[in-house]
Amino acid sequence: MKDLRRYLALKYIQYLVLSSSNAASTLLGLLGSAYTMVLLQSAKVSSKSTAVLISSLAQADLLVLLSLVSELFLGGFDAAPFLARMLLMANAHVSCVLLSCVACEAYLITFLPAQSRPHRTVRKARLLCRGIWALVAAECALFLLDEHLGASSASAPSCATLGLLFQLSSTATALLRSLSYSLGILLRIVNVYIYYKIFFSMSPR
């Protein structure tokens, strides 16, 4: 449907084109996600793997709402800004990966429709979404652990075991940040390549 394609275009601009989020793109993204979640409940939208991926993409914006709520109601706590950043980071990472999954599925539908049909099922799409959410949740858990160990080691600097754990978590967190940055660049390149191929394959010769 045209509305879903417009929504995907909006999310691509928001997460894979803009260098950073801003109030306007965030508000448009939230409104688009709310409309899409309502639209996907319509009987006019068939239950396909692409719809599952788009539904999970729209649900990821609930994390943005949670970050706004945490800043509004937990602003007096020291951990509130960190929690809000974690929620926004989780939203961005889930959205980027899901957008790339939609792009890969579009590639398969365009160039390998028959061969890929057994793999483009609703069940496998749901499993894929759960796996993506689980990986991002594990990433956030590592960042939260590093933050907690950093605060604990600052309050008890003489504890050698705690200091060692903090060093290990800091190293793992730094590697994960570097990997996330590299993966973000790779996803941008892959998405550009996929839609470049699709566009020229559908253009009149």
TrEMBL record:
Major location category of this protein: membrane
A GO MF term: G protein-coupled receptor activity
Pfam families in the record, alphabetically? Answer: 7tm_1
Record keywords, A-Z:
G-protein coupled receptor, Glycoprotein, Membrane, Receptor, Transducer, Transmembrane, Transmembrane helix
GO CC annotation:
plasma membrane
- Per UniProt, residues of the G-protein coupled receptors family 1 profile domain are 32-205
The protein's matches in SUPFAM superfamilies, at most eight in alphabetical order, are given as:
Family A G protein-coupled receptor-like
Cellular localisation? Membrane
| Membrane-topology annotation of the record | Multi-pass membrane protein
Which residue ranges traverse the bilayer?
Answer: 12-38, 90-115, 127-145, 174-196
Q: GO annotations under biological process?
A: phospholipase C-activating G protein-coupled receptor signaling pathway; positive regulation of Rho protein signal transduction
Q: What protein name does the entry list? A: LPAR6 protein
The scientific name of the source species is Catharus fuscescens (Veery)
